[in-house]
Fold this sequence. Notes:
Blueprint: H1 7-38, E1 64-71, E2 79-85, H2 95-104, E3 131-138, E4 141-148, H3 152-160
Antiparallel strand pairs: 1-2, 1-3, 3-4
Amino acid sequence: xxxxxxxxxxxxxxxxxxxxxxxxxxxxxxxxxxxxxxxxxxxxxxxxxxxxxxxxxxxxxxxxxxxxxxxxxxxxxxxxxxxxxxxxxxxxxxxxxxxxxxxxxxxxxxxxxxxxxxxxxxxxxxxxxxxxxxxxxxxxxxxxxxxxxxxxxxxxxxxxxxxxxxxxxx
Length: 170
């Protein structure tokens, strides 16, 4: 291909090149959802699993229900609490705040209650003996998650779910 030296022609060639690259990228992206939801081919090793979109409120038969059991936090924070969201209620001390905390941590394509990844690099700090277990249903999916404060990553994960879990940052 000959080299374009003129100013307007150089801009035209650069614009055409950019447009071609954008069209190629858009074409590859438009095929991704079809392949992701086809379900006929297994995911490649090490690739992220694409999850279905969250349920709409009108798709939830009984709303979201979670049972939260806290141990080792001390005082009134220990115990078992029931939480209902959409509409908010239950025996949890702050049902509205707890539901908002879980909503804040819910993102399409990720597991809301996922544990800290095994290969995470975390600070070596200890946040105390508190543990929690959250079971039930969230966004139409079963939940069985455990929490503790054994290192910096697990402390940060716990703190992201306050007030679903008690605030132990004091």
